[in-house]
Each structure stands twice: as structure tokens, then as C-alpha cells.
Design brief:
2 copies of one chain form a homodimer. Chain A is mainly α. Chain A has a single domain, classed as Tetracycline Repressor, domain 2 (Orthogonal Bundle), CATH 1.10.357.10. In chain A, 70% of the residues lie in helices and 0% in strands. The first copy, chain A, has 9 helices and no strands. In chain A, helix 1 crosses helix 4, helix 4 runs antiparallel to helix 5 and helix 5 packs parallel to helix 8. Chain A binds a DNA duplex through helix 3.
Chain lengths: 195, 195
DNA sequence: GCCTTTCTATAATTCTTGCTACATAAATGC
DNA sequence: GCATTTATGTAGCAAGAATTATAGAAAGGC
């Protein structure tokens, strides 16, 4: 049966996607509620009734980002059999995401709230996501080593930190308007660490 | 002869240095005028009389940053004879700057105003500084190649983009609380691109 | 000594921005 | 039909932040 009161005139999921675009393009702070409601096609009261607050909306939008856009590089990392190819595929997916972002915004997880206070909840969530990325890369490298694709004495944890940093750098470059060849040059340079 | 009216009770240069610390630690937007005046030990009217506006003050503080802190990596880059050692010295200087920054803020030029609108004057100045860094690295690599320290077919412009991106990544990592060993691992990984 | 000039201190003022009150509309359940 | 529930739209509130008005203080010039 349908819910009790007057039904929504807008689609919540679609509005969330619009909100993600705005957050991604402008960042959390620069995206103001007026921008969001305009893109979502709703008014402030509907906004707050459906999403609680700007911060809560960002959490939801970020969930959506991770499960769709962000998941691509993780999939590339885990689903590619050869470890070098896997790292390359992850970096290529990151570059694609950065280039496909609205107004060259780079990765939302990489750059989100970078200039906010350290104790900001959302900032800490971004940082925690970045740490998780280091972990994922480390695990993948360890798997590659155990399969004999890397030398036994490879510094996998150092390499994990390095490749995570390259993902961040790709986003920063994209924000500065770098094009695909420039990002590819960065990836190519980074791949030498595995030779 | 001394200037006409009542003399300042504070030292302008010293106040500027304090302001730089605050901007560096918190970023342009998060550093509010109250934080700045508190650190500078002055009141808002003195602040505005001496520095025009928060934005003008940031310009001055950034000048100071470039000519002191930022200059260290450029000096390291230019003053080291061997090109590989020069790149390594530049990265090490960047890591030092990032680690020495107040509250692990990373490089001011690398991360400043990253989440601000693209048309913000200060943001564009940061971006322009980052582009200049790519240029400097490129020139240094070209010099090294002409001196026979790099293979004749080395992709110096691609490598320049890559190493500039590593500088950015070091700052982002430092903001997330990375310690020296982690930054050194990133540098070590990056150095493989020159082998 | 007094005028002019420039700085200092307290206390607003103005502008932005996230958020909400209020009145109204559209659905369900009895 | 009427009460209940939930959504919409207009208009505005409240808090925060950059900036300034006003009065008074400290120097030089005559």
C-alpha cells in the first residue's frame, strides 16, 4: 500500500544524484543549499524533509559516489589478474573518473573537504576512505607477491602508500585542468615503481 | 624621518608571519579574521588599515611563503648538480615543508583553495603557481638530459608532470597525518621513474 | 599649545547561508 | 465527509563572518 500522506512530487533517488553532481563539482562547502535545491528542482522545506540537512545529504551522496563511481577503480584493482596490470587499471580508472567529473573536479574522496578543519566529521570520513584505499592496494600487492608476480622482498606497504598518493595527485591535476595525455604521463611515470 | 601620525603599536612584518602560520594551518576560507587578528595581536581596524582585506593579506602571506618556504624546493632543484639527485632533493624538501607545516597542513601552494570556485582569484593564483612548478621541473630535466644524465629520448615533459604531481601528493598525505617514513616511501617509489 | 595625521579599541552593521514557520495542498482511513 | 498525515511554496529567521563607524589616543609640525 502507498504511504500515508501527500506523496512526493519528486523522485528522491534522482534528486540525490543531482545533489552528488553539485557536491562533486563544487565541493561540500562551496555547494550551497540554493545550488542543491535548484539542481534538484525542489524547495528548501522539501529538501530538509527528505534529507535532514546539507551534511546528511552529503553523507548519502558520498555513499552513492563510492558505490558507483569510486567502485570502478576498486573493481579494476581486484578483478585484474596480473598485479601490474591491476595497478595500471586502477590508475586508469581514477583518471577516467577525474576526467569525467563535472567541471574537472577530480575524485570526490581524494579532495573532499581538504581545506576544512581537521575535526570536521565529513573530513574525517574522507581521510578514512583514503586510508582504506591504501589498505586495498596493499592487499592487492601482497596477493601479487604471493603469486610470484613481484619479487619476494618488494616493499608492498611503501608501494601501497605511493600508488594511493598517485591517485590523489591525478585528482589534483584534473582540478587544474590537466588533460588525458598529462594524466597518462603521470600514470606512466608511476608504473616504473613496479619494475 | 619618522612618518607623520601615531606610530603602529605592532610590527607589520611579524604580524604578516603570524598570519601566514594561520593561513597555512587552516587554509584561506577556514582562517577567519578573528583567528588572524588574535594571532597577530591586533584588532580588526588595525588589521584592515594595515592589510586592506583578508584576501589582500593572503596575497602578501603567499608571497612570503613562496620566497621563504616554497623557495627551498626550488633551490634544491636548481642547485643540485646531478639531475636525479636534484629531483630527489626537491621531493625531500617538499616532504620537509609538509612535515614542518603547522598541524600537518601540507604545502600551501599545493592545496590552497582546492575546494573553492574555479573563478576565485586566489585559486587561480595557486593553480598558476602549480603550473610554474611543472615548468621548473621540466627545465631542470631538460638540462639534465642535455648534460647526458638522462637518455636522449627521455620524456621530460611527461616526467615533469609526474614529479609535480608527486609534490602535490606529498602534501595531501601530510594533511592526512602521514609520517616521514610514509612520505619517504612515496618519494622512493617516485624515483623509479628516472631509472 | 594646538592642529593635523595616523593608529587603536569597542561596538555595531551588513551580507551570506543554513535552516524553519506558516499556510495550503494532496493523499489515505474510517 | 472529515480527520489525519505528509508534502509544497513563500517568506523569513538566526547565526556567523567580513568589514566599518565612531570615539579616543599618540605622534609630528608650527
Amino acid at each position: 500500500m502507498p504511504p500515508r500522506g501527500r506523496p512526493r512530487k519528486f523522485d528522491r533517488d534522482q534528486a540525490l544524484q543531482q545533489a552528488l553532481q553539485i557536491f562533486w563539482e563544487k565541493g561540500f562547502e562551496a555547494a550551497q543549499v540554493g545550488d542543491l535545491t535548484a539542481a534538484m528542482g525542489i524547495n528548501p522545506p522539501s529538501f530538509y524533509a527528505a534529507f535532514k540537512s546539507k551534511e546528511a545529504l552529503f553523507h548519502e551522496a558520498f555513499d552513492l559516489y563510492l558505490s558507483t563511481i569510486g567502485a570502478r577503480s576498486i573493481t579494476a584493482l581486484d578483478a585484474t589478474p596480473d598485479v601490474r596490470a591491476a595497478i595500471h587499471a586502477m590508475l586508469a580508472a581514477s583518471a577516467d573518473n577525474a576526467l569525467g567529473a563535472p567541471r574537472a573536479a577530480g575524485c570526490l574522496a581524494a579532495l573532499g573537504l581538504v581545506n576544512s578543519p581537521h575535526d570536521h566529521v565529513l573530513r574525517q570520513r574522507m581521510a578514512s576512505e583514503r586510508r582504506a584505499m591504501i589498505q586495498r592496494i596493499h592487499i592487492r600487492l601482497e596477493k601479487g607477491r604471493s603469486e610470484g608476480q613481484l619479487p619476494p622482498d618488494a616493499d608492498t606497504s611503501g608501494l601501497a602508500v605511493f600508488y594511493a598518493s598517485v591517485v590523489l595527485a591525478l585528482s589534483l591535476q584534473a582540478q587544474d585542468g590537466a588533460d588525458r595525455p598529462e594524466l597518462m604521463a603521470t600514470i606512466q611515470g608511476a608504473m616504473h615503481a613496479l619494475n
